[in-house]
Amino acid sequence: MTLTTARPRSEVAALADQLLAGWLKLEGRDEPPPSSPELPAERLRLGERVLLDRDAGELREVPGGYVRRRLRTPAPHGTDQVTITVASAGPAGPTWVRLEAEQLAAGPGVRAGGRVPVPELARTLLPLLDATDGPVRIGDAPRVVRPAGVEALIDELCDPERTLPVVVASLPPATTTDGWLEGTGSQLTRQLTGLAALYLLDHEALPLFNVALEYHKVYGGAVRTYLPEVDPASRADGGRHPVLPRHRIEEDVRRAAALLAREPGRLAAELPLPALLAAVPVYQPPAEAPVRSRAVAGHERTAGAGHRSADTAERQARADELQRVRHSLHRSRRRERLLIAVGEEQRTALRRANAQVQVLSGRLCTARPTDGSPVSFGELVGRFDEFPLLEFTGDQKEALALDGQCDGTGWARLTWDGLTALQEYAAAAVRGEAHGDFKQWCEHTPDGCHRFPPRKAVRGESRTVESHTKWKRERMLPVPECVDSSRRAFMGAHLRIGGGRTAPRLHYLDDCSGSGRIYVGYIGLHLTNTRTN
Asked: If we measure between CA atoms, which residue out of 228, 223, 103 comes closest to residue 158?
């Protein structure tokens, strides 16, 4: 927990001492004596395996001072340690308060307990501090947001000085504000004390909030964690702020509370320390050498002081390195968010360009029947490269033979229409925007694209044809080796060219999800089935 308060350093330290003493008394431990300015560092033994370290002094390299308290108490698998550090630059200006809770293992082969619970000191101290994180007030319980407070909440979410998450809960339908706060809310936010700002939108404020934050909504009893640097205009940024749905909360409130606290806890551990707290020196416990005689005692104190000084320097170097790593990680995460935002802008621009291309392609295709459509299959075969996502693998002679029929010109134009629609469908399918097969595309052709009659697009052959060895073999048509190692594939999907059940056919294989192309294996007279001979 890292926060600021307007209270002076000495007052915050006195509050911490008072609360620690009260807690120790309730636990049946010895109460510590009042701290003395003459003892800048001291270690107090207040019972079996109960240690209280107290120190105070000047900050490193910057003006100001600090007060620190560290309490260690026995735990089932080791030791619970709570450290509170208070630092300020002087009488004026804010006071920084940092509270850390840890579980220390009993030895190298012993594993400490699981998640560290919020210490009681945080719950009792936080309400007394009027603490803030930049512009955001941090309390120990959710604050109710009415319609008049929606704008202020959004300002807090978007404020660049905020470093802690803001957790916003939506009130479930038919639930009262007091009922939620006293029931689900108190259990759900118990592990967030000091780690996040907490809010609850009432029924009237909820729609106003969601209208203002189109890509960052929360509703239906869900809870959303808004990480720092919210960009309300970015759809991509919306995915960065996790949502805990209502059904997960109601299934198991305790598990939901643990899930909700995970991200704020990670963020609190990774954030670089503010400059004043980073300037607090590492703790150096006082000497505890036994006194045998004056000469021996003096020698032991001197040797012990030298050893402690080297150990302190090493621990200080590790603490400074950890601070540098935190800064580096923080900068990397900010760069990552920037790159994601830039990538989303580029994808949006690309989608718009593709939409414009589709509109223009549709207009061009509409104009082709009177301005550019082939009048024969000979011309059609020669212009097949105008469809970059289609590949003709069949025998051209079968297609050219259609030119000798009485309806050859009309068939050629209808075939061209089918190929044009297949090309537009393939372009959408490769982008993942087709939402179905070619039959569905024809039934729901997007605006601006060429329309091909859905009744002329057939998904596959009848069961009779597929089970007939000879007829099925006719429809095993050429494909590249990358599609099938045998260089043949069954092409049951086809387009009806012209009217009548025995009219010409165009057989194809849709491999947009594989090689990203459609293979046209046959254009010609109707292949053999029950109605042909």
From this structure: 228
**118 DSSP assignment:** P
Output phi, psi for 252, to 5 deg.
-160, 100
Phi, psi dihedral angles at 518 (to 5 degrees): -115, 130
Q: How far apart are CA 153 and CA 212, in angstroms?
A: 11
Query: Cα–Cα distance between 479 and 519 in angstroms, integer?
Result: 7
Q: Is 418 left (phi over 0), alpha (psi -120 to 50) or beta?
A: alpha
Q: In one letter, which amino acid is 223?
A: V
Spatial separation of the C-alpha atoms in residues 66 and 278, rounded to whole Å: 11
Q: Residue 288 in contact with residue 44, Cβ under 8 Å?
A: no
Low-confidence ranges of the chain (pLDDT < 70): 92, 107-114, 287-308, 337, 340-341, 344, 358-371, 406, 500-502, 530-533
> Which is nearest to 413 in space by CA: 446, 359, 452, 454?
452
Kindly report, residue by residue over 284-307, the tens digit of the pLDDT.
Answer: 877 653 332 323 333 333 344 555
42 close to 59: Cβ distance less than 8 angstroms: no
Handedness of CA 199, 204, 206, 209 (dihedral sign): negative
Task: Tell me the residue length of the chain.
Answer: 533
